[in-house]
Amino acid sequence: MRRTTILQRLVLAVIAAAALLYAGDYLWAKHLMSSPGSAAALGTVMVHHEWDVPRKDGRVEFDMEAPEAESCIHSLFPHFGYVTCWYAARHTTIQN
Questions:
Q1: Of 37, 47, 40, 91, nearest in space to 69 by CA
Q2: What are phi and psi of 67, to 5 degrees?
Q3: Residues pairing with 61 in the sheet
Q4: Number of C-beta neighbours around residue 47 at 10 A
């Protein structure tokens, strides 16, 4: 076989594996959300919002809000409008 054919098949296999992984993760998250104890699918992470406000004199004023709980989903990819918990736990400070 030619190198280009092997490379094309390899790229298609990687794309198919990624699509199957995403579909499986979606179905598992949907199963967890539809079960009676759907609390197992969701988690909460405390998030700090930091506001960087530029002033007229060229300096920047920093303002921090009180931490608030943000809902997240226990899955590999974000689904149903929720951020994944593994990502949210690593990004607890949001700069606006």
A1: 47
A2: -65, 145
A3: 53
A4: 17
Q: Closest Cα to residue 82, out of 24, 39, 42?
A: 42
Tokens 């296999």, located at residue = 13
- Residues 6 or more apart whose CB falls under 8 angstroms from that of 84 comprise 72, 73, 74, 75, 76, 77, 78
Rounded Cα–Cα distance for residues 73 and 78 (Å): 7
pLDDT in tens, 28-83: 999 888 877 666 788 899 998 888 888 888 888 888 888 899 999 999 999 999 99
Q: Measure the CA–CA gap between 3 and 19, rounded to whole angstroms.
A: 24
1-24 pLDDT, tens digit per residue, is 688 899 999 999 999 999 999 999
Q: Cα separation of 27 and 25, whole Å?
A: 6
